[in-house]
Amino acid sequence: MKLSQVLLLACAALLFGCAAPVSGVYSPPPGTVPAYDTVGDRATLASTRQTLAAKRQRLSEVKLQVEIDALQKEVADLEAQIAALEKRLEQHELARLTPAPTQTTPTYTAPAATHVGPRGGCYVYSKSGKKRYVPC
After folding, report:
1. What's the sign of the alpha-carbon dihedral 88, 94, 99, 101?
2. Domain for residue 79, yes or no?
3. I need a surface site. Which of 1, 6, 131, 136 has the fewest CB within 10 A?
4. Domain annotation covers residue 30
5. What percent of the chain clears pLDDT 90, i.e. is strictly above it?
């Protein structure tokens, strides 16, 4: 800057007053790069990456536990189905091996044309249609 420009700025500041920047808000002059704490930023970055890795590990463990629980439930369901099928098979085998009940035959069977009355008497119908009692 030239001396005349500096004097002009100083006069303008005296005439119009010097305005200080608003507290808490700072913007670097245009064309300059703000300074960063690279050592602190690198430490923060490393710490954040470690936290991320730990949370990803925990997430995978939780997912594995959920899968383990689901598989254990499926195994229990399959074991229950197997037990029910074995029981049904056993019942079918037992029913197949058990003989069917035999029918009792009556002690007396009348000849085909002979009829037995309500009091136990035997009779046949003659050609004329009358009942004829016969010995049983």
Report:
1. negative
2. yes
3. 1
4. no
5. 19
The answer to whether 132 and 125 are in contact (CB under 8 A) is yes
Domain count along the chain: 1
The encoded tokens of residue 47 equal: 């710490």
Contact 122, 115 (CB under 8 A): yes
Is residue 33, in this structure, part of any structural domain at all?
Answer: no
| The Cα angle at residue 83 between residues 79 and 89, in degrees rounded to 5 | 140
Contact (Cβ atoms closer than 8 angstroms) between residue 110 and residue 116: yes
23-34 per-position pLDDT tens digit? 555 566 676 666
Does 118 map to a domain? no
As a whole number, the mean pLDDT across the chain is: 79
Between CA 85 and CA 68 the distance in angstroms is 26
Q: pTM for this structure?
A: 0.38
Q: Nearest 5°: phi and psi at 131?
A: -80, 135
Average pLDDT over residues 63-90: 91
pLDDT in tens, 65-74: 888 888 899 9
Domain that holds residue 78: 60-96
